[in-house]
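Before a colleague's protein record goes any further, I have to sign it off. Alongside the sequence sits a line of tokens, each denoting a local backbone shape. I want your independent view on whether this chain really folds as the tokens say. Where you disagree with what is written, explain briefly why. This is what I was given:
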Amino acid sequence: MRRDRNREKAPCSNATEVMQQEIWKEFPEDLFETVIARLPVAAIFRFRTVCRKWSSLLGSDSFSRQYSEAPHGLPWFYTITHENANNNVAMYDPSLKKWHHPSVPLAPTKIVIPVASVGGLVCLLDLSHRNFYICNPLMQSLKEIPSRSVQGWSRVAVGMVLNGRSSNDGYKVMWLGNDGTYEVYDSTKNTWSCPGVFPPSIKLPLALNFRSQPVAVGSTLYFMCAEPDGVLSYDVSNGIWRQFAIPLPLYLTDHTLAEFQGKVMLVGLLCKNAATCVCIWELQKMTLLWKEVDRMPNIWCLEFYGKHMKMTCLGNSGLLMLSLKAKRMNRLVTYNLLKREWQKVPDCMLPCSRKKQWIACGTAFDPCPSALA
């Protein structure tokens, strides 16, 4: 009886397999793009290795549109690590809690630091603060853009905004110096320009906080300033400057701006007596005051008690990566602004080394295979 039943089931099983092959053979290519655009980044890269046709599909304009419209997960972090006078690139995927170590094709003589990102692209600036590079860290592509026309070695704050929904519509890079000089690079024109005169109503020098990367809300960039404490904004689309004097919370150090769902946020260390804690604030639009919305769990803060802590924020949009350092202590943590969740980051180590890497600088970026510099 069992043999007869098995014989009866076998043809059905084979028929099902044939039917599946026929279905996939006629599967519309536009639906392939719709499905692939919603896969995790790691799965997309496995998809590329199937065949040349599928790999080339990821570079098509239609896939780029599909990817820009599809919902995606957490941003990644592009960081520069330092060990034995050597600079290396490391990327952190918070979804898998995994470090990646790509070989970005940069000239070995050039030392560059990530200063801004938008639409899957990262802006790199060399130590002369004059030469800019745009790269897609995921695809390891690199483009050098024209040097800024203003001569000098003065430090600058750099921000990026998109022209449209994705980087394929073009993007703009802006740099701003303490003396009020600034320029805007338009990728569609491949040129720098100074759209207007810096308003005389804003006192110079600006005393920019260069530890804080500018944040973008739509087409507006926000820069953190001191003396007086506050925020300076510039709308790249219409050229309007605004300055807001906003007092900082008491006992605050190592503070930087962040952005979440169109809101301007602040993250920093509260240091009073021997106690230290990481806190998050939100800028209230009506009162123009900082309102505390969260702080690091007390059990984590106890580890910092009595230590001279320094903090660097490596990402400022949606998900923050915080580098917390003291003598004989180096901690990396992430903070999810949506879930209000703190998580520890695993140590960053090169594949052929067991030595822990020191994260020198970094920025958050949206992993996008179709982003074009």
Observations:
- The two ends are 67 Å apart (CA to CA).
